Automatic annotation (TrEMBL):
SUPFAM superfamilies: NTF2-like. This is Uncharacterized protein. InterPro entries: NTF2-like_dom_sf. It comes from Spirosoma profusum. Gene3D superfamilies: 3.10.450.50. It comes from the Bacteria.
Amino acid sequence: MTIPAFNKQINIKGFGIDRYKDGKIIERMQLGDDVTLQQQIGAMPDTGSAK
């Protein structure tokens, strides 16, 4: 899919979980709202339900 470059700020929500062992991060998981991201960059129509 080709999406033209644009110069605008986007805003998405997400969270991360780190797993520690002996004081060091040994695993990191992150989850972001990819649907909202795609809507903001014009790759997917904005249905209004993600607001």
